[in-house]
Task: structure prediction
Amino acid sequence: MNRREKIGAIRKALRDGKASIGSWMQIPHPSIAEILGRSGYDWVAVDMEHGAIGAHQLPDIYRALELGGTLPMARLAQGETKDCKQALDAGAGGVIIPMVESAQQLTRVRDACRWPPAGLRGVGFSRANLFGADFETYAEEAQAPLLIAMIEHVRAVESLEAILAVDGLDAILIGPYDLSASMGLTGKFTEPAFAAVMERIRDACRTSRTPCGIHVVQPDPEQLAQRVAEGYQFLAYSIDAVFLRASATNPQSMS
Result:
């Protein structure tokens, strides 16, 4: 798989107002990645924040995703320099940054993800450039990997206009559970106050022409279609463990 071409295709779809649909992975096994990689998603985010996946497991997981033509991405643990370097050097085509609350925080992470002259990330041979064999090609890719900011706290909403103005931001991704929890409304997505905050986020994205995304946690095709119809463009569809739980439940135990 050509990572640069896949990154470019996702960016073009977002610019053209289309949806880019990916999925989420928390189970640390390449076989899971191989299944998801062949499931028709543009990208799959490997969850380094809540998943039980270590940096040493990333290369094999990314290889398995790439077999199916799916772009590997990483949801970072925090967005520290080490997090950025390990995920991208292993071959991620982009990063999803949790708990972004300010433009300064996002700018710092962006710079930690980019090789000079665009950023401050350390340059070296790694799996991402086939240990030097693709060094020149990767030097261009490393100037601007995909950059997705998660909006997960009401403090982020107060600073949203500045966050959306950060150069190089490809999309935002709303984390509905954390966002609702920060409002004292954990999981209460139908509450008017939460609905108002969601609309405020969408309005700001429309004004700034920034693609807005959301995680559709339950594997519900109708809900996914509804979110796309509502104008969400960068969508994570469910999670490997949730797919498994939803299909593995004994139907007789529910009777």
Summary: The radius of gyration is 18 Å. DSSP finds twelve helices and eight strands in the chain.
